From TrEMBL:
Organism: Viridibacillus arvi
Molecular function in Gene Ontology: ATP binding; phosphorelay sensor kinase activity; protein dimerization activity
InterPro entries: HATPase_C_sf, HATPase_dom, Sensor_HK_TwoCompSys, Sig_transdc_His_kin_sub3_dim/P
Entry keyword annotation includes Cell cycle: no
Stated name of the protein: histidine kinase
GO CC annotations on file: membrane
Residue ranges of every copy of the Histidine kinase/HSP90-like ATPase domain listed in the record: 304-388
The protein's enzyme class: transferase
Length: 394
């Protein structure tokens, strides 16, 4: 109701009714012009022009005042109907009420007009009937039903306009809220990625600092150790080499985690990660994609990449796995990531820092992680991520 009361632009139905009203008043004017004479003709013509123009002073594009329009319409049309009933005393004068009653009903859609409209309509109908002494006319009830039908049509058209305007307002509100949600989702995503990169940058700083400090310290001590014990020096060189190699791997992994992936799909990023891991660890890794691969948000993609990285590292480092299967299943409501290996497994599984971080990442996306391991039977990690909740839970 508020939508109709506050509207300032005409609905297409307003233009249709205005056109019909124009045709109706033109026809009335023509009948008056050819059917009456003398002063009465000019009185009726002036009356017809007034009841056409005055109501629309309050109901026009850019200005709609329903109460004033209804009362102007009822006053002018009602008084004209009563005058015609007195003057001519014929049942055809009821036709004069049809279109005005339709437009009155169309406008009477807000309280108290919705209750006042029928009362005004009945009052005009019976006042004109009484003034023209038309109760005895055999067509009285038929005219009453006809006029009531026109009033009902106008009422239905008005309700249709209300529903249409309310739907437009609702759609506009939903679109506005969707834009806000998308904006905040992008902002949260940017902040999350920025925070993650800052953390990874710190990891890189700590890793590089630790590696170079250890290597430099060992290299400084190596000449003295070589003169004192040649075999011990050779052993130290081997340890320095292993340390540098492990450090290089950690740095590469950290840099890879920091690299932007916005230009790649999830599957492309996972394939690149697997190829790089196989190249440096000589591990046989198979990627299986189930369902139709759909686009996922950057936050989900980033979390999955980090979890697969951790899963591969855990399988190789702690399980000594030689074969790893990674399965990504795309469903309507969730994304499932399964990491299985043929490593040593564990009789009792304790979550280290890496696996706890994996669980935290998936939980932040309203998902769940399941860990299963058995001694000499490898390990299985299953991640369930509800893609539909990404925005609301960001």
């Amino acid at each position: 109701m508020k939508a109709v009361r506050d509207q300032r632009k005409w609905h297409w139905l307003d233009y249709v009714l205005f056109l019909i009203r124009t045709i109706w008043i033109t026809n009335i004017g023509y009948l008056i012009f050819i059917g009456t004479t003398g002063l009465n003709k000019w009185i009726l013509l002036l009356w017809a022009i007034s009841l056409y123009i005055i109501p629309h002073l309050f109901y026009r594009p850019g200005l709609i005042k329903f109460p004033k329009y209804v009362f102007a319409e009822v006053l002018l049309t009602g008084s004209a109907f009563i005058y015609l009933s007195i003057q001519y005393e014929i049942s055809e004068t009821y036709g004069f009420l049809f279109w005005p009653m339709l437009t009155v009903a169309y406008a009477c859609q807000v309280k108290p007009l919705i209750w006042l409209g029928p009362f005004l309509y009945i009052s005009i109908f019976f006042a004109g009937t009484l003034a023209g002494d038309l109760f005895a006319d055999e067509g009285f009830f038929a005219r009453f039903i006809d006029t009531t039908i026109f009033y009902g049509i106008g009422l239905c058209l008005g309700r249709m306009t209300i529903v249409n305007n309310a739907n437009k307002t609702l759609i506009a509100s939903i679109e506005e809220k969707n834009e806000d949600l998308e904006y905040y989702s992008k902002k949260i995503e940017e902040l999350t990625i920025k925070e993650e990169r800052n953390r990874v940058s710190q990891d890189l700083h700590d890793t590089v600092g630790h590696i170079f400090t250890s290597v430099i310290t060992s290299l400084d001590a190596l000449p003295f150790l070589y003169r004192a014990d040649k075999k011990e020096a050779e052993k130290s060189i081997k340890e320095i080499s292993d340390l540098a190699r492990d450090g290089l791997h950690d740095v590469r992994k950290t840099i890879h985690q920091m690299s932007p992936m916005t230009h790649q799909t999830l599957i492309e990023s996972v394939q690149e990660l697997i190829v790089d891991f196989m190249k440096h660890t000589s591990t046989d890794i198979k990627l299986i994609v189930e369902g139709e691969a759909t686009k996922v948000g950057e936050r989900i993609k980033f979390a999955i990449i980090r979890c697969i990285q951790e899963g591969l590292t855990n399988a190789k480092k702690h399980g000594q796995a030689t074969i790893i299967n990674v399965t990504i299943s795309f469903n309507q409501e969730e994304l499932i990531v399964l990491i299985e290996d043929n490593g040593m497994g564990f009789s009792e599984l304790h979550l280290g820092f890496g696996l706890r971080s994996m669980k935290d990442r998936i939980s932040a996306l309203a998902g769940t992680v399941e860990f299963y391991s058995k001694l000499n039977a490898g390990m299985r990690i299953t991640c369930h991520i509800p893609t539909a909740k990404e925005v609301s839970l960001s």
